[in-house]
C-alpha cells in the first residue's frame, strides 16, 4: 500500500502537468514563436500591414508597457529583489527591426535611449536633422553611416555643451570596421575626432565604439525594441539554469553570400572551433531554432559565445544570454568595456588557445563570487542605469565593476 500511495502523487502531478501543457497550447497560441508580441506582429504581417504600420499601431501599447515598467521601478529594491520576476525597460539603442525608413518620421521612430534626445540626426543619405525643445531631454542622438564619414556642421553646431549618443546601426565609430562597407581612412577618422572635440560636446557615448580616446565612452547596444513593448521585458529574477554536460553554447548565425563573406567569417571560424577542438565543452545547435528553444538553450549553458557579426557589439545576443542567466563570452575591443559592467568573459582573440574548459570553469567560479545575486545584473541591464551614467557625463569605463567591488551604486 505504501508503494501505491507514494505513486499516486506522482501520477497526479503528471496528469496536472499534461493538463497544464494542453491549456498552454489552447490559451497561449503564441508560445511556439516566442511570446505575445511576435505573435501579434506575425498576424499583422499576414494581413498585409507593413512594418511602418505595425510600429504606428503599437504606439499606445508601448506607452502602456513603459508606464508599467516605470511604476515597477518605484517599488522598493528590497521588495523587487525578493520577487520571482522583474518588469524591466532594458537598455536599447536600435530602431525597430533596424528599419531605417522609419527614421524619416524623426523622434516618433525612436525607442530606448533615443527617446531621451532633443537633437536627432540620421547620417544615412539623405541625411536629416530633427530638433525639439530640450525640456528635460538629455542627449543629442546620431545614427552614423558607413557611407558618410564627414559630420555636418549643422549637427556639430547643435551639440555644444551637450551629451551625444551614437548608435542604432552596424556602422562602427569613429573608424569604419564593418567589412561590408568602405573602410574609413586614417585622415577621415582624425578629422571626425577633431571636429567632435572642436564642437565641445560634454561626452560622446557610442555603440560599436572603435576608439579609446577620452572623449568617447562605450555603451551596449542592448535589446531590439518590440512595436508593442518597446524595450520592456519580463525577466526572471533568478533564471533557472538547467545545466548540460557541455558548459558553453555557440549559436551564431552564419550568413552566406558575397555581402556577408568577410563580415561573418569570424562566426564561421568560431563555429568550426566549436565543432572541432572545443567540441568537448561547446555545444553547436541546429540552425534556425525557434525563439523559445533558443532561450531554453541559453539557460542550459553556463556560457554563450557571442561572436560579433554586423559591427562589433555582441548584443542583442549578449543581453539575451544575460537575461537567461548565461555568461556572454565576447572579444576585446573598445566596445567591450561597456560589457565589463556585467558578468562577462572577455577574450583577446577567437583563437583556439584562448578558451578551454578549465579556463571557463575558473571564470564561472570568479563571476559567481562577484555576482552572487542575479538581480544586480538585471539592474544594470536597465535603460535607467545607462541614462543615469550619461546624465552625469560619467565615463562608462571607470565604473565597469561589480556592485560589491566598488561599482556604481547610485
Number of strands: 13
Assign the structural class, choosing from mainly alpha, mainly beta, alpha/beta, alpha+beta, or little secondary structure.
Answer: alpha/beta
Taking pLDDT < 50 over at least 5 consecutive residues as the criterion, the unreliable ranges are 1-10, 16-26
Largest sheet: 6 strands, mixed
What this model shows, in words?
Among the domains are: 96-218, no CATH class; 239-377, Rossmann fold (3-Layer(aba) Sandwich), CATH 3.40.50. It has 14 helices and 13 strands. The relative contact order is 0.12. The chain starts with a helix and ends in a 19-residue tail after the last helix. A six-stranded mixed beta sheet has the order 3-2-4-5-6-7, with no helix packed on it. Strands 10-9-11-12-13 form a five-stranded parallel beta sheet, with helices on both faces. The chain has helices at 2-27, 36-46, 51-57, 59-73, 77-82, 153-156, 186-199, 258-261, 265-275, 291-299, 317-323, 357-370, 374-381, 383-391, and strands at residues 85-89, 117-122, 128-131, 139-143, 163-166, 203-206, 216-218, 232-236, 248-250, 282-283, 303-305, 327-331, 345-347. It is α/β, with parallel strands linked by helices and 410 residues long. The chain is 35% helix and 13% strand.
Amino acid at each position: 500500500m505504501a508503494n501505491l500511495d507514494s505513486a499516486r502523487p506522482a501520477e497526479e502531478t503528471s496528469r496536472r502537468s499534461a493538463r497544464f501543457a494542453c491549456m498552454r497550447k489552447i490559451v497561449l497560441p503564441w508560445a511556439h514563436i516566442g511570446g505575445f508580441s511576435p505573435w501579434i506582429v506575425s498576424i499583422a504581417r499576414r494581413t498585409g500591414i507593413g512594418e511602418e504600420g505595425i510600429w504606428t499601431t503599437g504606439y499606445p501599447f508601448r506607452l502602456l508597457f513603459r508606464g508599467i515598467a516605470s511604476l515597477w521601478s518605484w517599488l522598493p529594491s528590497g521588495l523587487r529583489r525578493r520577487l520571482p520576476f522583474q518588469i524591466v525597460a532594458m537598455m536599447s539603442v536600435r530602431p525597430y527591426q533596424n528599419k531605417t525608413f522609419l527614421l524619416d518620421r524623426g523622434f516618433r521612430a525612436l525607442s530606448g535611449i533615443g527617446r531621451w534626445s532633443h537633437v536627432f540626426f540620421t547620417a544615412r543619405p539623405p541625411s536629416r536633422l530633427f530638433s525639439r525643445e530640450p525640456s528635460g531631454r538629455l542627449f543629442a542622438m546620431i545614427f552614423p553611416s558607413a557611407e558618410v564619414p564627414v559630420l555636418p556642421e549643422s549637427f556639430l553646431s547643435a551639440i555644444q555643451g551637450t551629451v551625444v549618443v551614437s548608435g542604432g546601426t552596424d556602422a562602427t565609430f569613429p573608424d569604419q570596421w564593418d567589412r561590408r562597407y568602405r573602410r574609413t581612412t586614417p585622415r577621415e577618422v582624425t578629422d571626425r575626432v577633431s571636429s567632435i572635440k572642436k564642437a565641445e560636446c560634454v561626452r560622446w557615448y557610442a555603440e560599436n565604439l572603435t576608439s579609446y580616446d577620452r572623449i568617447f565612452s562605450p555603451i551596449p547596444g542592448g535589446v531590439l525594441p518590440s512595436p508593442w513593448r518597446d524595450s520592456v521585458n519580463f525577466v526572471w529574477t533568478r533564471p533557472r539554469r538547467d545545466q548540460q554536460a557541455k558548459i558553453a553554447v555557440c549559436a551564431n548565425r552564419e550568413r552566406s553570400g558575397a555581402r556577408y563573406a568577410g563580415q561573418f567569417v569570424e562566426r564561421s571560424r568560431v563555429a568550426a572551433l566549436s565543432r572541432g577542438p572545443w567540441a568537448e565543452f561547446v555545444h553547436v545547435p541546429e540552425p534556425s531554432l525557434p525563439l523559445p528553444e533558443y532561450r531554453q538553450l541559453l539557460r542550459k549553458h553556463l556560457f554563450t559565445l557571442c561572436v560579433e557579426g554586423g559591427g562589433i557589439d555582441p548584443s542583442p545576443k549578449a543581453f539575451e544570454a544575460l537575461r537567461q542567466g548565461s555568461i556572454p563570452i565576447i572579444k576585446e575591443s573598445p566596445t567591450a568595456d561597456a560589457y565589463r559592467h556585467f558578468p562577462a568573459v572577455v577574450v583577446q582573440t577567437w583563437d583556439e588557445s584562448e578558451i578551454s574548459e578549465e579556463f571557463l570553469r575558473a571564470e564561472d567560479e570568479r563571476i559567481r563570487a562577484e555576482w552572487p545575486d542575479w538581480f544586480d545584473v538585471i539592474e544594470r541591464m536597465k535603460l535607467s542605469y545607462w541614462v543615469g551614467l550619461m546624465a552625469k557625463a560619467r565615463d562608462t569605463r571607470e565604473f565597469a565593476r561589480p556592485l560589491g567591488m566598488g561599482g556604481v551604486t547610485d
